[in-house]
From TrEMBL:
Domain of life: Eukaryota
Family, per entry: Belongs to the CCDC149 family.
Coiled coil among keywords: yes
Species for this entry: Lygus hesperus (Western plant bug)
Name listed for the protein in its UniProt record: Coiled-coil domain-containing protein 149
Keyword terms, alphabetized: Coiled coil
Length: 282
């Protein structure tokens, strides 16, 4: 009898140890869950804040996805590198053609321009003026007609290229001035409307945790509403009155949930019977 009691006590102690271990594991899992929830909320707020800042910068009314912007940035970076490589190739070809053109120019008696680092020739205003005002026999000699024509042709081409370069630079400068004027106007308007605050405050203006919860948890709230509506429909369809037998069965199930496992219950009953017998004999 004492051996059975000791075994029963040992089993009870083992069950208690298991319950303690399981409760400790459950507590650790709950703590880990809380940490993960906090980390998730932090990441959600960070994503929402970045989207809000980008939306504020771009003055867009619709929502912006950060992943799509990153992909677009990568694509534009690749295209930019490709454009730079093509520009270098075109620059090399242009330098080659300029060098060939300069070689053809030098065939005449008059040499125009000065050497540059790009490999081409640049005609200055002073050189053209000296060439036109010079009363040299080169222009009047009948034996140097081909050389004179070559010099005049090279002079005309050089002046035409210089004029085209100046015109193109002037057009680009006008466009740049228009863009800068528009930007200055918009900047002055924004500065006049807004007070002098830090840029970070301007970007985070109108941002709050309530907005994050509204935007991120909208789908969860909708799913919960659908679930509650379905459960209400099922409750309406089911009979609302329970019989006495169903109530008794519910009470039995509730009482069975509180009862110990069958093996442990038998051991406890045996121990109680033995204790009562020993008390009666004594």
């Amino acid at each position: 009898v004492l051996d059975e009691k000791e075994e029963l006590i040992e089993e009870i102690e083992e069950m208690r140890e298991k319950i303690r271990a399981m409760s400790a594991d459950l507590q650790s899992v709950l703590d880990e869950k809380e940490e993960l929830i906090m980390e998730r909320d932090a990441y959600r707020f960070k994503v929402y804040r970045l989207n809000h800042e980008i939306q504020t910068l771009l003055k867009s009314d619709s929502g912006i996805d950060v992943d799509s912007l990153v992909m677009e940035n990568t694509y534009l970076k690749e295209r930019f590198e490709q454009a730079v490589a093509e520009k270098e190739m075109l620059q090399q070809g242009l330098t080659k053609y300029k060098s060939m053109l300069d070689k053809n120019r030098i065939k005449g008696n008059v040499r125009l321009g000065t050497n540059t680092t790009c490999g081409g020739m640049v005609v200055t205003h002073r050189q053209v003026q000296e060439l036109l005002e010079n009363d040299n026999s080169v222009w009047k000699s009948p034996y140097n007609a081909e050389a004179t024509l070559a010099d005049l042709r090279s002079l005309s081409l050089a002046l035409l290229e210089a004029l085209q370069d100046k015109s193109l630079a002037l057009i680009h400068q006008r466009k740049a001035n228009k863009i800068l004027a528009q930007r200055v106007t918009t900047l002055e308007g924004r500065l006049s409307e807004e007070a002098s605050v830090f840029p970070s405050q301007v970007l985070v203006q109108g941002l709050s945790n309530v907005d994050v919860n509204k935007e991120m948890d909208k789908s969860v709230v909708e799913e919960y509403k659908e679930y509650m509506a379905k459960s209400r429909i099922q409750e309406v369809d089911e009979p609302t009155v329970r019989t006495e037998e169903e109530a008794c069965s519910v009470q039995k199930e509730a009482s069975e949930e509180e009862v110990l496992p069958p093996e442990l219950q038998e051991l406890v009953l045996r121990a109680m019977e033995e204790i009562s017998e020993n008390a009666g004999t004594e």
